[in-house]
Amino acid sequence: MQVIINIGVVIGMFQVTGITLPLISAGGSSLTLMLTSIGILLNISCYSR
Questions:
Q1: pTM, 2 dp
Q2: pLDDT digits (tens, 9 = 90+) for 11-37
């Protein structure tokens, strides 16, 4: 996914600012949203088996 975003930024399809790196960016709201998303996906994968 990160490769697609990088290619999109280089060719000018996506904006350069506002895209955070998952689990690397130190922003509070970005980190909270990413960890919540991972938790929901892990919960779904646990109960789908």
A1: 0.52
A2: 888 877 776 777 776 677 778 888 899
Would you say residue 32 lies in a domain?
yes
Contacts of 8 (CB under 8 A, 6+ apart): 14
Query: Could you give the CA distance from residue 17 to residue 3 in angstroms, rounded to a whole number?
Result: 16
Calculated CA dihedral for residues 12, 16, 22, 25, nearest 10 degrees: 160
Question: Is 8 inside a domain boundary?
Answer: no
- Cβ burial of 30 (10 Å; 0-12, 13-18, 19+) is middle
